[in-house]
């Protein structure tokens, strides 16, 4: 097992790769709040207990270090519901984070995207004072109608970049599509990452979301990666993605999103 210091050196080198890519993509001075959102459905059981998800977390935290001055990353998990995991992942608590904060406290379930998308969006709205002001009459009307008033569109200092990992299709496509359309009114970019499956049909919905029309802004991208591409293994050197190749994929559309979001006054 590699030592913490060895892991810290790897992560620091990976962070520098992210910083170099920001320069290449002309977003050198851009910051972002990074969020990690993990599928915790039953089909992910082996990937969690094998240590794969922890290794994926290790490879994703350099993005937080390269974009976020705090150097931390909130973690959400989802199955039939969604949970915001405490504490945020940092270099100080990264080792065994999955074991200490997720596996010991939550149960596996089905696969629904909407609860996590809505939770992350709602937390963004609250954090940025985008909740609508309502009169007493408006509150009573909302209560009777059952409809939640739409959040205000606000201009923020920096966007939120969500790394959303899943290994399969969801059971709530209509709700998830509506949630992504609603989230497009806010400065949140969703980088969906499909893990492991070789079937092109497994991620047909995420492929659809990537090209979804009718949004205020294109706020999502989808890529598919195998476990062998994410985790280094001497037996599979031909498919393993080094840091630059991996982060180039993960940051493929985000720079363009930042520029368009600023034009549309989602970002200052």
In the CATH hierarchy, the architecture is 3-Layer(aba) Sandwich
Unreliable residue runs: none
CATH topology name? Rossmann fold
* Rg value: 19 Å
CATH domain class: Alpha Beta
Biggest sheet statistics: 6 strands, mixed
Spatial strand order of the main sheet: 3-2-1-4-5-6
Tell me, rounded to a whole number, the average pLDDT: 91
What's the overall geometry?
Answer: globular
- The CATH superfamily is identified as von Willebrand factor, type A domain
- What is the ordering of alpha helices and beta strands? HEHHEEHHHEHEHEHHH
Q: What fraction of the residues are assigned to beta strands by DSSP?
A: 15-25%
Number of discrete helical segments = 11
**Residues in helices, as a percent range:** 40-55%
Overall number of domains:
1
Count of extended strands: 6
Category by helix and strand content = alpha/beta
For the record, give the distance between the C-alpha atoms at the N and C termini, rounded to a whole number: 45 Å
């Amino acid at each position: 097992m590699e030592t913490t210091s060895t892991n810290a050196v790897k992560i620091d080198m990976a962070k520098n790769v992210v910083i170099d890519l920001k320069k290449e993509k002309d977003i050198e001075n851009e910051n972002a709040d990074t969020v990690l959102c993990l599928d915790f459905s039953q089909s992910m059981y082996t990937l969690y207990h094998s240590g794969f998800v922890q290794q994926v977390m290790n490879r994703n935290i350099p993005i937080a270090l390269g974009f976020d001055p705090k150097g931390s990353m909130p973690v959400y998990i989802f199955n039939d519901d969604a949970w915001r995991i405490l504490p945020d992942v940092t270099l100080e608590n990264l080792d065994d984070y999955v074991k200490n904060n997720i596996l010991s406290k939550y149960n596996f379930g089905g696969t629904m995207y909407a609860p996590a998308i809505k939770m992350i969006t709602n937390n963004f709205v609250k954090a940025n004072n985008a909740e609508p002001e309502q009169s007493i009459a408006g509150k009573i009307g909302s209560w009777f109608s059952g409809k939640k008033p739409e959040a205000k569109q606000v201009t923020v200092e920096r966007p939120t970049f969500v790394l959303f990992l899943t290994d399969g299709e969801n059971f709530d496509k209509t709700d998830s599509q509506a949630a992504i359309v609603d989230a497009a009114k806010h400065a949140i970019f969703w980088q969906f990452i499909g893990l492991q499956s070789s079937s092109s049909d497994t991620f047909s919905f995420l492929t659809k979301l990537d090209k979804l029309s009718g949004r205020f802004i294109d706020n999502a991208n989808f890529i598919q990666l195998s476990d062998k591409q994410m985790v280094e293994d001497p037996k599979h050197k031909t498919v393993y993605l080094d840091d630059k190749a991996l982060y180039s994929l993960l940051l493929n559309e985000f720079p363009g999103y930042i520029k368009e979001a600023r034009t549309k006054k989602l970002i200052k």
